[in-house]
Specification:
Protein name: Iron hydrogenase small subunit domain-containing protein
Largest sheet: none
Helix content: 55-70%
InterPro entries: Fe_hydrogenase_HydB (IPR008953), Fe_hydrogenase_ssu (IPR003149), Fe_hydrogenase_ssu_sf (IPR036991), TAT_signal (IPR006311), TAT_signal_bac_arc (IPR019546)
Main location: periplasm
Organism: Pseudodesulfovibrio sediminis
Pfam family, one: Fe_hyd_SSU
């Protein structure tokens, strides 16, 4: 079985917790931390729902985006599908699977 350093340290920490604290106390600690995560997640979602910054949910309704694409004096006056907006705002895909396969064939292990 192969195990990277991070997984090994995590497994050792869990086993040490079981050895020192016992199974029941460790289960309670994990359960309380998970309930804290749930409460935190609920509060973050509530804060996002009440925030004024998220009043504009669609990018096409954003006044700054409308100003950028303005026909008269906007920076990208050509429109959303114009040459300049395509050049500045779009990303390009580069297929690197052949290079990754070549590295794997040479025996290099990649940790993502």
């Amino acid at each position: 079985m192969k195990m990277n350093r991070r997984a090994f340290i995590k497994a050792c920490g869990i086993m040490t917790g079981y050895a020192v604290l016992g199974l029941n106390i460790t289960k309670e600690a994990v359960a309380s931390s998970m309930s804290f995560v749930g409460l935190r997640q609920t509060s973050v979602y509530a804060a996002d729902a009440n925030a004024k910054i998220y009043a504009i949910r669609k990018s096409q309704d954003n006044p700054m985006i409308k100003k950028i694409y303005d026909k008269k004096d906007g920076f990208l006056h050509e429109g959303p599908c114009g040459h300049m907006s395509h050049h500045l705002l779009h990303t390009h895909y580069i297929d690197r699977s052949a290079k990754v396969a070549a590295l794997k064939d040479r025996g290099v292990t990649l940790n993502f």
